[in-house]
Each structure stands twice: as C-alpha cells, then as structure tokens.
Sequence to fold (247 residues):
Amino acid sequence: MEKLTNELVLWLRKQVKDSHTKGLVVGLSGGIDSAVVTYLIKLAFPDNSLAVVMPIKSNPTDIKDANIIINDSGINSLTIDLTQSQEILYGEIYKQINDKNDWQADKDQINDANLRARLRMSALYSVATNYEYLVVGTDNLAEWYTGYFTKYGDGGSDILPLIDLTKGEVRELARHLKVAEGVIKKVPSADLWEGQTDEIEMGTSYDMIDAYLDGKEIPEKDKKIIENMHQKTEHKRHTPTQYRFKQ
Fold:
C-alpha cells in the first residue's frame, strides 16, 4: 500500500503538470472512496488541494463523517449547501412536464437522485474553474464495471485515481492512509435518497462484485446481476456516440 500510495501521488502530480492546472478538488461525501481521494490529493498538493462538501437533504452522519475526514487530513475545504437549488430546479422541471400530463411518477425517485449528482458535479466544476484545479473522481473498479454512478454526475470528472482498485483494495488503502475506522466500516451509500444504500439498490454486494472481478466463482444470481448491470451501462463508460459525415 505504501508503494501504491507513492505511485498515486506521483500520478496525481503529473496530471496537474500535464494539464497546466494548479491543483486538485474532490467532492467529499463522507464515504470511503471520497475519503481516500481526499487524503491522496492532500499528500500530492498540500497547499493546492480542496475538498467540497455538497449536502442536499443529506444524512447528518455523512456531514459529520465528512468533517472528520477534513479535520484528520488537514485539507482545505468548502461546504456548499445545494438543497434549495436542487428543490427549485427539480420543482420547475416537474411543473413543466406535469403541465403536459407527461410526468412519469415511477421515475421520480431516480430522476431526483440523478439531478442531485449532476448538480454536485456542476458546483464542483465551478469551484474548480475558480481555483484552476482538476476535478478528481472517486469511482472504483466495482462501480465503474457495474456502471454504478450517475452519467455526468459523480461520473463526471477529469481524472480517476481509484478506477483500477476493487472496493476491498480501496478499504486497504484507506487503512494505510489512516482514514477513520468509522468511515471505513460505514455502509456504502451514494446519498441519493433517505435510507438509500448501494448494495440494497444493486441487489448484490461489493464483496461479490470484487470476487467476480478477481475471477472467482460466485453464486449464479449475483453473477447475473453484475453482468446485467455491466451490459446495461456500457454507454456510461464511453464518450457520446458520434455520427461522422466525412469518412
């Protein structure tokens, strides 16, 4: 883990140098992935790194954990409450569609959740523009393979340092970086709605996904869920499909 940490820190510094930017910013949710990225960017750029907490009707525990991560890592931080902005924007979207009698109530929860993720991404890029920083994503290999991220939301970033690490490897790295044990052991959640957890929503566990990615045998039920998620979300892992008039 020490070798990996050093390699990631050097890689982060190279990305900033190559992009002619000045530092790094991450959206800090209070979860393990964003905690690990927070510690890494602080190591890479002690004076030019920033963690941004962006609550939207968030669980108070997540905000508390985010503040623990900020205090323990010593990183510079901002808190931007997006609750009112999200309510206004989503309310107007609902009104305009509902006035046409086209509102699909069964899509309400996921639609609302995705807007939260995309609003956070927009805010994060505004902060990044101000400081001339790169936006650092927090997706790990399990999330990337299954497409468990919002397209142009938490999936919207400039660089992805954890993309080749399973969830288990992220936990190992978190312990090496001395992330608070309470953050490491907390139930993973994307903070998309009250009571939401990653594993309940996916229908399988990160341990199962990690085992699948490591080529191990897992129950057929879990295998089908993982492969179905991967197939359905293929579009998320590519740039937009382009029509080329001039071949």
User: Anything to note?
Assistant: Residues 108-131 form the longest helix (24 residues). Residues 97 and 103 are 6 Å apart (CA to CA). The first strand starts at residue 23 and ends at 27.
